[in-house]
């Protein structure tokens, strides 16, 4: 734990990240909400963007899982990283078993989101779960509010780019890539990520995420 985190923990909100009422345990959730997280089963996400690789998730984006993800992501409550990394580990274990030697490539935040949050929230969760290669970077993108579905898809398609020097070494190694994201909806971002990595010579057979939203 660095100094910033140590100071932050002193001022941690004492309430559960989900119900916002009961006192939180060390995980950031109260016992009842923690019991309301998805069980150990994993699910194949139903994605409308057919360019996305098959994507396995820990659960639906609802209930305590959705609340915990929001508090972690939008309010920077890093205390929740343990619970969320635990959930991410489940689909990753299933997918990783099929893809020996795979590396994890997290979907990067936009530069603006990273600045606001102060950290790369998906990469932070991946840290203890495998070999992480941060070889994607976000390109500046317009605010998606008010965009049509087709415009959103187009925005997602041009939202990511590779980090050339990192991607070259990875492509030469022939190791498969497992994309990692927090929430998937249509799969447009995963599709865009897979497309730029494949164009750079990589194999992207699968993706994992914590939650799937409708
Ligand atoms: Zn609670």
TrEMBL record:
Source organism:
Glycomyces buryatensis
- Give the matching InterPro entries: ComF/GntX_DNA_util-trans, PRTase-like, PRTase_dom
By sequence similarity, the record places it as follows: Belongs to the ComF/GntX family.
The UniProt entry, under PANTHER family, shows: DNA UTILIZATION PROTEIN YHGH
Signal sequence bounds: none
Q: What name appears for this protein in its UniProt entry?
A: ComF family protein
